[in-house]
Design brief:
transmembrane helix; alpha+beta; Alpha-Beta Plaits
Length: 159
């Protein structure tokens, strides 16, 4: 794809006029269009899974509230169950399942309100720009990208 002194510069941008300004400045610097590539990222709008897996976690646990309220209601059910007809074991189990379902329902309601706000925020990067630099162009290209509000700039040296 290029000679022995090629350096590839990767940068991430929000989708704005700054991407076009950066491309224009790079062309003024003498970087050909064949050495630049801008790739818009498609936003994944897939449904968020309700339960975490072993390899992926979103940091929100629906089990915690159910476990806490289940334990509290089980202790209360067992304690008051001594004075009730079915006894402490049955009332403890009823308290556990009732508390667990109540806690799970509260977690789902609270997190359902919180998750859309997280997704409503703009993604960190919407456009990735790849530039192949020849010779000593790297520092100038990096300066242009940073001046045009690149979210990040990376370098791959292919020498």
């Amino acid at each position: 794809m290029g000679g022995g002194n090629d350096v590839y510069v990767l940068s991430a941008f929000e989708h704005s006029l700054y991407v076009d300004l950066a491309l224009s400045e790079l062309e003024e610097l003498g970087v050909d269009r064949e050495r630049m590539m801008a790739v818009p990222l498609e936003q994944s709008l897939g449904a968020q899974p309700l339960f975490d897996t072993l390899h992926r976690s979103d940091g929100i646990s629906l089990f915690d509230g159910g476990a806490v309220l289940g334990t509290v209601f089980a202790v209360l059910g067992a304690s008051f169950g001594f004075a009730l007809r079915w006894g402490p074991i049955i009332w403890g189990l009823i308290g556990f399942f009732g508390g667990f379902l109540l806690g799970l329902g509260l977690d789902v309601l609270l997190n359902a309100r919180r998750l859309p706000r997280k997704k409503a925020g703009k993604p960190a990067a919407e456009v990735v720009l790849l530039v192949r630099c020849i010779g000593s162009e790297f520092e100038q290209v990096r300066t242009i990208l940073e001046r045009n509000h690149a979210l990040g700039v990376g370098k791959v040296d292919r020498s």
